[in-house]
């Protein structure tokens, strides 16, 4: 207030409205994994949480997808397809399978495709923590280091490590326990979405769900959710794979199979048709020197000039695309090889899709709506078909570790059919939406209350913080986030001397606020009773 000594007019402004609680974001996942690079204008982003809002931004800061490499090999048991090695000789028909190579030579990294699936299912802003490039092996210690870097960030509300299931089983379990420790003990403002190891296998095949429950432990289960089974997706499309995704030794076997299919002898005799000769040249070109082929072709043109690096690069891409198109048009074996490779890549854990579902449900219905009874985009089918009887043990078990099922329903598609945390025996934290809503309420009120730190610990301050929190909870109740016919039934806020504080608390500078809320829980089981009545007319 100005000191009034000089005659004149003095302006005094008074705040008409109290401080308010701003609702924090509820659907901001953090993905930890390997990227092509991590760079922002020559500033390294390795092991640095970086916020993006689209795949375009991901490409800018972290590059593109890995180059998966597959090995075409003979398979006597459970082959992917059958093919002949000698033309017109049925006895030469054998079984073959596609096996993806892991590590730097094979590109067994899944973060990029997980991000694509996340955005297909309604994803929005998220954080990326790059723990290495595609030239580095998967290291659980680097994943843990990436998780620890998220201690500095308050905004993320979900934690995902899609590549955890690429590790050995004991390493995956150890990493998932570190995720639980991070979410439930150190931060307490986010949840972990976990994948069941070997979740593409059936319940009676190596017991993946039982092993997951046995290995995970019992700590901080209310801060995590898990989904089963894995999904057959459409994330990787036809244009994402070509003959370049085969290992060098697989190329020779592929050429043999294509020649047998198209009846092209080796060596090529004289007098064959032009089409046969062209197909033979295309087959030989699969593992050829494309730079030399493009350069030689350009040199044959009239007034030929040396190609610039950009022209050479464009010519190589065009030549490879033409070769891929030619082989795809004439060879069913070639198409089968790429189709089976794509099928292997499209078997994905569901955590990234569920992060997208959480985001979509939060944006359309609110964080208090259970993220269940929602269809999944980019999904053909679950890897394992689950019946209602099989889901009983997944959803309710004596140990309380509920696993949410993803099921296919006739006429409805693939639906998320579970909304529980891993702490299924807790009446407080059984449901995902209850835990996530409470995190939102706690964080929103905590950040708003920071404005009152070091304010006088007197009745005026107590009234201010009580009205601030009450107004916020009233707005949440009006939108359906709290249960009750009137606000008094939905929540209550208590603060004051003799109510939440003692004189010693005031002397020690402690202001205690107690908030009681009636959380909205999903109608997980609906029972409709029918009974006959006596005819009345």
Topology:
Blueprint: E1 29-34, E2 39-40, E3 43-44, E4 50-52, H1 55-62, E5 69-74, E6 81-84, E7 93-101, H2 111-120, E8 126-132, H3 140-149, E9 158-160, H4 169-187, E10 191-195, H5 208-216, E11 224-228, E12 231-233, H6 248-262, H7 274-285, H8 290-299, H9 309-330, H10 332-345, E13 347-348, H11 351-364, E14 374-375, E15 379-382, H12 388-395, E16 404-409, E17 413-417, H13 432-449, H14 459-478, H15 487-490, E18 491-495, H16 503-507, E19 513-517
Parallel strand pairs: 1-8, 1-9, 9-10, 10-11, 11-16
Antiparallel strand pairs: 2-3, 4-8, 5-7, 6-7, 12-13, 12-15, 14-17, 16-17, 18-19
Structural notes for this entry:
The structure is a single chain. The protein is α/β, with parallel strands linked by helices and 537 residues long. It is built from 16 helices and 19 strands. It folds into 3 domains: 237 residues, Rossmann fold (3-Layer(aba) Sandwich); 138 residues, no CATH class; 81 residues, no CATH class. The strands form 5 sheets. A 9-stranded mixed β-sheet has the order 4-8-1-9-10-11-16-17-14, with helices on both faces. A 3-stranded antiparallel β-sheet has the order 5-7-6. Helix 5 links the parallel strand 10 and strand 11. Helix 2 packs parallel to helix 11. The mean pLDDT is 92.
**Overall strand count:** 19
User: Can you list the strand order of the major beta sheet?
Assistant: 4-8-1-9-10-11-16-17-14
**Count of spatially separate domains:** 3
For the biggest sheet, the summary is:
9 strands, mixed
Q: Mean pLDDT across all residues, rounded?
A: 92
Oligomeric state of this protein:
single chain
């Amino acid at each position: 207030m100005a000191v009034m000594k000089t005659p004149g007019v003095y302006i005094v402004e008074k705040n008409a409205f109290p401080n308010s609680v701003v609702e924090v974001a509820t659907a901001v996942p953090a993905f930890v994994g390997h990227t092509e690079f991590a760079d922002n204008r020559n500033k390294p982003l390795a092991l640095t949480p970086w916020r993006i809002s689209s795949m375009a931004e991901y490409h800018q800061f972290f590059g593109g997808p890995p180059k998966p490499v597959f090995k075409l090999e003979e398979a006597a048991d459970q082959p992917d397809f059958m093919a002949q090695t000698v033309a017109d000789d049925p006895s030469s028909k054998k079984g073959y399978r596609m096996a993806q190579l892991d590590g730097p030579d094979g590109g067994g990294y899944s973060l990029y495709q997980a991000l694509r699936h996340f955005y297909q299912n309604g994803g929005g802003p998220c954080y990326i923590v790059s723990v290495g490039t595609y030239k580095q092996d998967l290291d659980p210690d680097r994943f843990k280091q990436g998780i620890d870097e998220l201690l500095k960030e308050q905004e993320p509300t979900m934690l995902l490590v899609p590549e955890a299931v690429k590790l050995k089983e004991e390493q995956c379990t150890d990493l998932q326990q570190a995720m639980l420790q991070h979410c439930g003990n150190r931060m307490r403002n986010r949840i972990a979405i976990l994948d069941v190891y070997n979740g593409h296998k059936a319940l009676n095949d190596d017991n993946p769900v039982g092993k997951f429950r046995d290995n995970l432990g019992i700590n901080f289960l209310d801060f995590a959710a898990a989904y089963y089974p894995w999904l057959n997706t459409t994330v990787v499309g036809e244009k994402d794979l070509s003959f370049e995704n085969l290992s060098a030794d697989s190329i020779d076997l592929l050429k043999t199979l294509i020649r047998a299919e198209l009846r092209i002898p080796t060596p090529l005799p004289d007098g064959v048709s032009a089409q046969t000769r062209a197909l033979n040249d295309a087959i030989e070109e699969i593992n050829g020197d494309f730079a030399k082929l493009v350069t030689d072709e350009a040199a044959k043109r009239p007034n030929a000039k040396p190609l610039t690096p950009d022209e050479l690069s464009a010519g190589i891409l065009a030549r490879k695309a033409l070769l891929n198109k030619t082989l795809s048009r004439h060879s069913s074996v070639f198409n089968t090889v790429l189709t089976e490779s794509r099928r292997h890549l499209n078997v994905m854990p569901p955590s990234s899709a569920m992060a997208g579902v959480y985001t979509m449900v939060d944006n359309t219905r609110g964080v208090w709506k259970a993220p269940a009874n929602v269809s999944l985009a980019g999904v053909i089918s679950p890897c394992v078909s689950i019946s209602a009887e099989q889901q009983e043990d997944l959803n309710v078990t004596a140990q309380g570790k509920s696993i949410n099922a993803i099921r296919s329903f006739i006429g409805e598609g693939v639906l998320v059919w579970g909304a529980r945390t891993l702490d299924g025996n807790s009446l407080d934290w059984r449901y995902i939406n209850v835990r996530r809503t409470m995190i939102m309420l706690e964080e929103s009120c905590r950040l708003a209350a920071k404005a009152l730190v070091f304010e006088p610990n007197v009745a005026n301050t107590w009234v201010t913080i009580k009205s601030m929190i009450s107004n916020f909870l009233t707005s949440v109740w009006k939108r359906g986030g709290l249960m009750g016919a009137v606000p008094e039934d939905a929540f209550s806020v208590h603060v004051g001397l003799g109510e939440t504080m003692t004189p010693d608390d005031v002397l020690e500078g402690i202001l205690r606020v107690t908030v009681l809320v009636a959380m909205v829980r999903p109608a997980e089981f609906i029972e409709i009773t029918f009974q006959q009545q006596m005819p009345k007319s």
